[in-house]
Write a sequence for this structure.
């Protein structure tokens, strides 16, 4: 999360180009949305299994980052692909993701209605929000967007294989609600393996998403690496923000980044 925000800051300041990034989590990690109550997470379960926990800079509900691909896109707001409000740019970027999944033989569609996950459960994959990626009505790829003055960050999670309901073991729920949510997730969401009818590796999925974004958004991608500025900024953000108890508890931290947040 610190690296994503470090790239966002550099893109907002015009010191880095628009950036598409794919990554895995090691060890696996439970992430909460920016405004999600921390007491919805079961930190004892995370500790028992050696999993991490973090609060994302973007909104949404809890995600278990295990057996999945995480992507992030940082764009300057004057880029035509970022044009319009959050919903319009979110829709445009989601079409690139959907096209990539179609290249894998998945009948990916964008959910047209916007659902309020806050009224559903603590788990992100319980219900698709507007323009998130679904397959026959079941959520496959969840995303969220956050903006600072000058740039946007959109990132999301694509479950590759495994038990889509595994997140339930890391949420603070009474046993009855836990089992109900576990059963519901297995109906409302699915993994890429289920959608494609075969196991798709991280590398194959990332390559397909690159191609889909290239074709749908008319961009040319070049392989790159974190700059020294981005690495130093990520270290600072990790120590002063994402690893801090205050940020986990949902307290806003005052940062001197030079790129004010916008709602």
């Amino acid at each position: 999360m610190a690296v994503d925000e470090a790239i966002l800051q550099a893109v907002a300041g015009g010191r880095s180009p628009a950036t598409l990034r794919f990554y895995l989590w090691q060890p696996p990690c439970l992430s909460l949305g920016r405004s999600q109550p921390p007491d919805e997470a079961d930190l004892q379960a995370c500790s028992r299994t050696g999993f991490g926990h973090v609060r994302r800079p973007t909104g949404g509900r809890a995600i278990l980052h295990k057996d999945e691909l995480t992507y992030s896109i940082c764009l300057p707001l004057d880029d035509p692909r970022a044009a319009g409000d959050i919903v319009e740019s979110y829709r445009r970027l989601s079409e690139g993701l959907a096209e990539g999944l179609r290249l894998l033989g998945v009948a990916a569609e964008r959910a047209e209605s916007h659902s309020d996950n806050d009224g559903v459960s603590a788990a992100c994959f319980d219900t698709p929000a507007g323009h998130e990626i679904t397959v026959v009505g079941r959520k496959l790829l969840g995303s969220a967007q956050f903006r600072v003055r000058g740039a946007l960050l959109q990132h999301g999670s694509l479950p590759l294989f495994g038990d889509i309901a595994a997140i339930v073991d890391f949420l603070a729920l009474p046993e009855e609600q836990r089992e109900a949510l576990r059963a519901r997730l297995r109906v409302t969401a699915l993994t890429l393996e289920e959608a494609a009818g075969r196991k798709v590796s991280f590398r194959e999925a990332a390559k397909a998403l690159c191609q889909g974004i290239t074709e749908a958004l008319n961009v040319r991608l070049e392989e790159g690496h974190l700059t020294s500025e981005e690495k130093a900024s990520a270290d600072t953000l990790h120590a002063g923000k994402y690893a801090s108890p205050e940020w986990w508890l949902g307290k806003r931290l005052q940062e001197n980044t030079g790129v004010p947040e916008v709602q």
Remarks:
- Residues 2-219 form a domain with the BirA Bifunctional Protein; domain 2 fold (CATH 3.30.930.10).
- The longest helix spans residues 86-103.
- The first strand starts at residue 19 and ends at 23.
- The two ends are 19 Å apart (CA to CA).
